[in-house]
Design goal:
mainly alpha, binds heme C, globular, Cytochrome Bc1 Complex, Chain D, domain 2, 116 residues
């Protein structure tokens, strides 16, 4: 009992002081990107229409986003238990919500300048 309380306190402190932390959230198999987002990301990435993320163009692709989620990035915690299909799903969800530009999810079409 006491251990659990200590553990919870340590997690809260780590999360609020911004040390690089690892989040042990594990998605259910087959979870959609939106479900994962609502469970694991929404506390920090508060949804506001489509402007949840503002990822620079060179990072706005599935592979880079997946790497950021797996390994963390400064204050952003690492999510080592989000893998495979679920990692792809949440990465696509993030990309779709990215505000920088209308990025195509298949990645092979040319960028559209009209949204600037
Ligand atoms: C504890 C708070 C916290 C949680 C939980 C969290 N993030 Fe983050 N995330 C951040 C912060 C703060 C940043 C921006 C700072 C930085 O780049 O280090 C960030 C940055 C990111 C970036 C990079 C954005 C950029 O512009 O480079 C992505 C992608 C991201 N988060 C996705 C997610 C996803 C997906 C989840 C859920 C699985 C999630 N985050 C959960 C705090 C969080």
């Amino acid at each position: 009992m006491k251990h659990l309380t200590m553990l919870t306190a340590a997690t809260v402190i780590a999360a609020t002081t911004g040390c690089s932390v690892s989040n042990d959230f594990t998605p259910t198999a087959g979870a959609t990107g939106e479900e994962i987002f609502n469970s694991a990301c929404i506390d920090c990435h508060t949804p506001g229409g489509n402007n949840v993320f503002d990822i620079s163009p060179e990072k706005a692709n599935i592979d880079t986003i997946a790497t950021i989620i797996s390994q963390g990035e400064m204050v952003m915690p690492a999510f080592p238990n989000i893998q495979g299909a679920e990692l792809t799903a949440i990465s696509k969800f993030v990309l779709a919500k990215n505000s920088s530009e209308e990025t195509k999810t298949n990645g092979d079409s040319e960028k559209d300048e009209t949204s600037k």
